[in-house]
Amino acid sequence: MRDRIDEFGSEATVALVTFTDPRSLAEYQSRHSLGFVALRDPDRDGYRAFGLGRGRVARVWGLRAAKRYVQLIRRDGIGGLRRPTEDPLQLGGDFVIDGEGRLVWGFWGDGPDHRPAIGDLIAAVRDAAH
Predict the structure, then answer these.
(1) Which residues, 6 or more positions from 77, have their beta carbon under 8 angstroms from its beta carbon?
(2) Would the pLDDT of 17 be above 90?
(3) Angle (nearest 5°) at CA 102 between 96 and 108
(4) Is-contact 106 115, C-beta < 8 A?
């Protein structure tokens, strides 16, 4: 996404919302050059407001997750893995809110790796601007 951030246009504000603690967020931001705003929602009020629940254990820790861990171990070795510090079952989503404050597009993930295509997000932002 970082390599396509400029495609969202100057009228859009892209933000990451997380419930992590301040230190973990700062570490994440220093490891990854986000190129957009990162906000904290420690009580997960926003998550609830957008209907983001918790995932099923079998989906979050299932075969897809195992494959991803194998990829990470191959790339970074076992030392690259970290124990989760937050709720790994908390589901995420991606949303577009127009200039009037209305939700005009939403994507509710059903697992940690379930995200929309960046092109779909960019199209939703452009549609909301017109």
Answers:
(1) none
(2) yes
(3) 45
(4) no
